[in-house]
Amino acid sequence: MSLYFNLNGMQEKKIDLHYKIYTSVAELKEEDQQLIDKAKKASLNAYAPYSQFRVGTAILLDNQEVITANNQENISYPEGLCAERTALFYTSANFPKNTIKTIAIVGNNSLKTTDKPITPCGGCRQVMAEYEGKQQSKIRVLMAGVEGKIIEVNGIDNLLPFRFVMD
């Protein structure tokens, strides 16, 4: 983060976000390719009868365990849950002492092939930030569509620089 000062005391700051873009899954390490593949498979089981937009997530833990989940819609839209939060909450409930190393997110639109990376919503970013703080280490995030480019960020600061905190 850069910091600039003006003469009247007001501060002007600049945020630098760091991310990598891969042109295809073939450019990733084997471990990351497998994680993306598991997230794709998880997306196929999503319950998305209203949006037809299926999202799958795969979380790699420090013990090499992989947790998968998908989005779950409900006719009362606010009652559904994103794939990322489904996976994160399950992970916290069942593996509370383990560290999340990487989370892969893949979107799959039933109406057309999704070739742009799917990024997590603001709520999911905030939950990721919470768990990153809890484990006191960064979480790598891989974002992909069914095909095409993959975006990688290391740490939630690169997705949500102004997350909510209580000090």
Which tags fit this structure?
167 residues; alpha+beta; Cytidine Deaminase, domain 2; 6-stranded mixed sheet; two-stranded antiparallel sheet; 25% helix
Notes on the structure:
The chain has 167 residues and is of the alpha+beta class. It has a single domain, classed as Cytidine Deaminase, domain 2. It contains 3 helices and 8 strands, in the order E-E-E-H-E-E-H-E-H-E-E.
What is the H level of CATH, i.e. the homologous superfamily?
Cytidine Deaminase, domain 2
Radius of gyration from the CA trace? 17 Å
The proportion of residues in beta strands is 25-35%
CATH architecture tag? 3-Layer(aba) Sandwich
Shape label: globular
Quantity of strands, as a count: 8
**pLDDT averaged residue by residue:** 93
Describe the sheet with the most strands. Answer: 6 strands, mixed
Number of domains: 1
CATH fold type: Cytidine Deaminase, domain 2
Q: Which structural class is indicated by helix and strand composition?
A: alpha+beta
Tell me the number of helical segments per DSSP (H or I, 4 or more residues long). Answer: 3
Order of helices and strands: EEEHEEHEHEE
Structure at a glance:
This protein has 3 helices and 8 strands, in the order βββαββαβαββ. It is an alpha+beta fold and 167 residues long.
Write the topology of this structure.
Layout: E1 2-5, E2 11-14, E3 20-22, H1 30-44, E4 53-61, E5 66-70, H2 83-94, E6 100-109, H3 122-135, E7 140-144, E8 150-154
Parallel strand pairs: 6-7
Antiparallel strand pairs: 1-2, 3-8, 4-5, 4-6, 7-8
